Amino acid sequence: MELVKIGVISCSGEDCFGGTVSRLATRKILERIRLGEAVTICLPLFIAGGEEERGFAQAHPTITVDGCGKWCAKRATEKLSGKVSDVVQVADIIGQKTAEGPALSTRNVTKEHMEMVDQVVEDIRIKFDRIADGYYKK
Ligand code: SF4
């Protein structure tokens, strides 16, 4: 059975804490939790018109991860590529006020911040596995 590669696309989130969490959680899924099963794209390149990126959501079931209610990753993906399979909203998990706080340099990330990242990782993982299960049952 061929392994389905599932796309996980984080917003670029340089401006608020929710974006920091979005990027760290997506990175952890890609590099540790679902290594080899998850793929991603660079959102700014995608928006700038990278040809390969444009077909991404058609080629892979895709989960977007957004740091706040502006939904940049979901909106860009659906506008430029195709409908996403599921979404993760960081503000719904860590609270809107926390998500809207200032962005954080990775060297200033604390244990408490990483616990929030792990809550988001778990939400991504659950949605990721639900999509994967649906494919393998087909
Ligand atoms: S969704 Fe929010 S945190 Fe993410 S890039 Fe857009 S404005 Fe920034």
UniProtKB/TrEMBL annotation:
What Pfam families does this protein map onto?
DGC
Instruction: State the taxonomy lineage.
Output: Bacteria, Bacillati, Bacillota, Clostridia, Eubacteriales
User: What InterPro entries does this protein's entry cite?
Assistant: DGC
Q: What is this protein called?
A: Zinc-binding protein
Q: Which domain of life is it from?
A: Bacteria
